[in-house]
Design a protein that fits this description.
globular; mainly alpha; three-stranded antiparallel β-sheet
């Protein structure tokens, strides 16, 4: 099955809702070129990895549990 790149792209607003982050924060990450983008769209698989790797969007209790494992 051929999968097009569009299947892995979201607008910044859609991505903020996906992770429960502010639009301003996602815009800041995009402008800093920290957030993987494809044009003006967020590259979801790579951006999800970035968010998880950097512990962004996790609750404090989850961060504490990860710290004490």
């Amino acid at each position: 099955v051929d999968k097009s790149i569009e299947d892995d792209l979201l607008t910044q607003s859609q991505f903020t809702r996906r992770w429960g982050l502010s639009r301003q924060y996602i815009t800041k990450l995009a402008l800093e070129e920290s957030l993987p983008m494809f044009g003006k769209m967020v590259d979801v698989p790579l951006a999800d990895q970035f968010i998880k790797r950097n512990g962004i969007g996790l609750t404090i209790s989850l961060r504490l549990r990860m710290f004490f494992l």
